Amino acid sequence: MKRSHTRTPPTPALPYVEAAKMLEAAPDLAPLPPACVAALLNKKTVNALDKMRSQGRGPKFIKLGHRVAYPAGDLRKFLAGLQRRQVA
User: Fold this and answer.
1) What is the pLDDT of residues 11-69, one digit of tens each?
2) pLDDT band at 1; cut points 50, 70, 90
3) Domain contains 7
4) Closest by alpha carbon to 31, among 56, 68, 58, 1?
5) Which of 17, 56, 13, 53 is nearest to 35 (CA)?
6) Which of 25, 35, 69, 87 could form a disulfide with 31, with the two C-beta atoms 3.0–4.6 Å apart?
């Protein structure tokens, strides 16, 4: 029997406004889903965020069983660190 080599489509990021509201409402220790974080980092899919994580870049994350989540407080710190005061 032949196996089909179909790939599952990548998980899209949430709409930015929805993700921003989730981050604003979340306490620092609340785990945010990868789809939310991908939207806030302007990534089109969760796969792009997965690649950042595997390369040691991106915000701190936690493992919840087999799932990955991002604490809201750590994400806020990461986003604050991306701000630039001047253009070089």
Assistant:
1) 888 889 999 999 999 999 999 999 999 999 999 889 999 999 999 999 999 999 999 99
2) low
3) no
4) 68
5) 13
6) 69
| 86 located within any domain | no
Q: For residue 74, give Cα distances in angstroms to 6, 10, 71, 85, 88.
A: 36, 25, 5, 21, 27
Number of domains in the chain: 1
Q: How many CB atoms lie within 10 A of CB 12?
A: 14
CA distances from 41 to 21, 49, 56, 60 (A): 14, 8, 15, 13
- Written as one letter, the residue type at 72 is A
Q: Is there a domain that residue 49 lies in?
A: yes
Say if 25 falls within a structural domain.
yes
Q: Angle at the Cα of 16 (from 84 to 50), degrees rounded to 5?
A: 80
Residue in the structure block whose two tokens are 């990461």: 78
User: Which residue is it, tokens 């089909």?
Assistant: 4
